Predict the 3D structure of the following.
Amino acid sequence: MLLLAVLALALAAPSLAYSPDDFIHSLGATFLGFWGATEACPVGSYARAFELKVEKQHWGVDDDTSVNAIRLYCYNAAGEPTGNVTSSTMNRGSWTGVYSCDEGDFLYGYNLKSQPDQGSLTDDTAANALRMYCRQTSDYLESPGNKWGSWLEPSFCRSGMGVCGLMTLVEEDQGTFGDDTALNDVRFLCCDLP
């Protein structure tokens, strides 16, 4: 009887698992830290806007981290805001301001500016900027970041899908004498559009 109750509960609960095929990812980013949990917009809503938390350059006076977090702003098909999602973050820097697709449009692709490993005697920063693409325009939105690194290849959701969540790879604080990189990589979750 208990087994039937557990089975019924499992079937009635919405699935929190996502197919690996529903994530977009660009190869070539650094890989320090741990992947945070997937954070998704509420069911029936999608990311229309984003912003970065960026630590400004210290000009050699302190350890640079650059991008510390990515925040997505979710909207439903009627254009009503439904919240925001971030996945894992580091605690340095400031939010740079919101960059948004036009009303009725949603994000569907990205490309990350990433600095490769600089070796043990040089300051590493990992992710340094982010471009995101809206479905209905050919141009991209770019949040200010830092100068280091180069742009990885863009990655896009499949046809009929839009960005609806993310998971981030973030290195935790390495202490006084460690080299911090903060956000290293990101994978965006894509969901079927209405």
User: Anything to note?
Assistant: The chain has one helix and 15 strands. Residues 1-15 have pLDDT under 50 and may be disordered.
